[in-house]
Amino acid sequence: MGFRGKYFFPILMTLSLFLIIRYNYIVSGDPPLRQDLPGRQSSRDDVISSVKTPSKRTKRLFHTAVTATDSVYSTWQCRIMYYWYNRFKDEPGSDMGGYTRILHSGRPDGLMDEIPTFVAEPLPSGVDQGYVVLNRPWAFVQWLQQAHIEEDYILMAEPDHIIVKPIPNLARGNLGAAFPFFYIEPKKYESVLRKFFPKQNGPISRIDPIGNSPVIVSKNALKKIAPTWMNVSLAMKNDPQTDKAFGWVLEMYAYAVSSALHGISNSLHKDFMIQPPWDTETKKTYIIHYTYGCDFDMKGNTMYGKIGEWRFDKRSYGDKPPPRNLTLPPQGVPESVVTLVTMINEATANIPNWES
């Protein structure tokens, strides 16, 4: 069953807006981040290429938290994500504990009895300036303040994540575990980031190349980070130079900065997640993130920048869920894409009332 938090929203919101971090703005000529699709990921010396699970392990459970809206687009992704969470939760090697969909639409929806849900209030009208992701940190603030969370760690995930195998707790103490994004480049944007991470906080390298998801972090650390993450996100969005520089990844930079401001570092696991079609194999990963469109001709060749003869793109299903039994890709398509479609088909075949 879902539940609705009780809190004094106007008071908290007023306080949060008063707490927005103010910095001396630095004029920068840095160009905005590229919005095109990525090539291969760059690497850092401290990136862990594979995760080794000890043979003798003590359970250190983490709670999986997914922020979402009540749109059809978000809802069908959440149902698939939750299906695969349940499939692997109790398998050997798993440290997966409870699960919460943090619904920041401000009202209950039709999934309250299917997926454990916390209803959070969205930001006041107009505050997000059309950038709906700004509601994510504010929703986490509400959830962390009001919900009873038994686990000592939290995995922040997203609706378009598919869990491929049991996930162990990759975090250690106050050290979080995160996926490194090649397009999060703190050094490149140092002049912009110094507005929010002043020099007295240390070298810019203390800001990890991460977003908030996927990240496993201690609950106590996240309780400190979340209000700062919210305020830094709002401050970045309200600064035209920063907004222009970071665009659609602004909230990701805000989390990375906030984590660093609180002295929370992260071990970086490049095998934590893959993103088809650019990543081609699933054998080492824990999560498939299907954020990019997969377009191929019938010979299995990628059709860059074109609608494929065969395609899967989540954006094709904005107002209705994908049908059951999607056509599998042709021979020659990367294994990651085949696995993605196969796992979506299994989930939709077993979720009741899928297309209703």
From TrEMBL:
Keywords: Glycosyltransferase, Membrane, Transferase, Transmembrane, Transmembrane helix
GO molecular function, one term: glycosyltransferase activity
Domain Hydroxyproline O-arabinosyltransferase-like, residue spans: 62-355
Residue spans crossing the bilayer: 7-25
Location(s) in or outside the cell: Membrane
Pfam families reported in the protein's UniProt record: HPAT
Bilayer topology term: Single-pass membrane protein
Residues of the signal peptide: none
InterPro entries: HPAT-like (IPR056508), HPAT/SRGT1-like (IPR044845)
GO cellular component: membrane
Protein name according to UniProt: Hydroxyproline O-arabinosyltransferase-like domain-containing protein
Organism for this UniProt entry: Microthlaspi erraticum
